[in-house]
Specification:
214 residues; Thrombin, subunit H; 2 domains; six-stranded antiparallel barrel; two-stranded antiparallel sheet; 3 helices; 28% helix
């Protein structure tokens, strides 16, 4: 681990810096607090399904740096008290856990006209709407019907006539009373017709959460 010959950059702190996090010189206590804060922020973005391609890039860069610096600091165990050592290991595990959600396909903004159809007995309906954000495996869009997570819909592209089944992975009612929903396409390969390549992006896990630091 390199020795940082600077003072911690946090205002009011007079401690020497022990690590660089994204070019910021930080003492160990402030590295721990800043890392927890950033991990918590990204955790909220993940659970609220607001992480798209541009944020995924900065999140990935932070996590790689955070993991590397945490690992560096844990190698200097003789200079750490037990609480700091435990917190660094906790940060390492939390950051590594977050990297699991930077996967599958990238996001792109695209408005494709579609029809949604619910075929539940006694609750059948259909609605025309359009996508807002696409991934290879799903889409985010608005719907006026009171859908529930786990419902299955028939999705028809109004521009091509192609159809696919999709599961509602999550839903959230907005200020206008409509529902923002995330669709996960079922057993369908490249329904949107884009070249996705091998780009890695984020696919949300609806029930995943990061526990608060102790």
């Amino acid at each position: 681990m390199m020795t940082i010959q600077e003072q911690c950059c946090v205002s009011g702190c007079t401690e020497p810096a022990g690590v660089l996090l994204e070019t910021r010189p930080l003492c160990v206590p402030h590295f721990i607090s800043v890392s927890y804060e950033r991990i918590e922020q990204y955790g909220h973005i993940v659970t609220e399904h607001r992480l798209y391609e541009e944020q995924a890039g900065s999140m990935g860069q932070f996590l790689v740096d955070c993991i590397a610096r945490s690992a560096d600091l844990t190698q200097c165990a003789e200079k750490l008290d037990n609480l700091s050592r435990a917190r660094l290991l906790d940060i390492l595990l939390r950051a590594a856990e977050l990297t699991r959600y930077l996967r599958r396909s990238s996001r792109r903004l695209a408005a494709i006209p579609i029809q949604l159809r619910c075929e539940k007995l006694g609750r059948a309906w259909d609605e025309e709407t359009e996508t807002r954000v696409l991934s290879r495996f799903g889409a985010m869009l608005e719907c006026s019907h009171a859908v529930e997570a786990g419902d299955t819909l028939l999705v028809t592209r109004l521009d091509t006539g192609e159809q696919a089944r999709a599961r509602i992975a999550w839903r959230k009612q907005n200020n206008s009373g409509r529902f923002e929903i995330g669709l996960e396409l079922l057993n369908c390969e490249n329904f949107w017709g884009f070249e996705w390549g091998g780009a890695e992006g984020f696919r949300p896990e609806p029930n995943w959460n990061i526990p608060s630091p102790q």
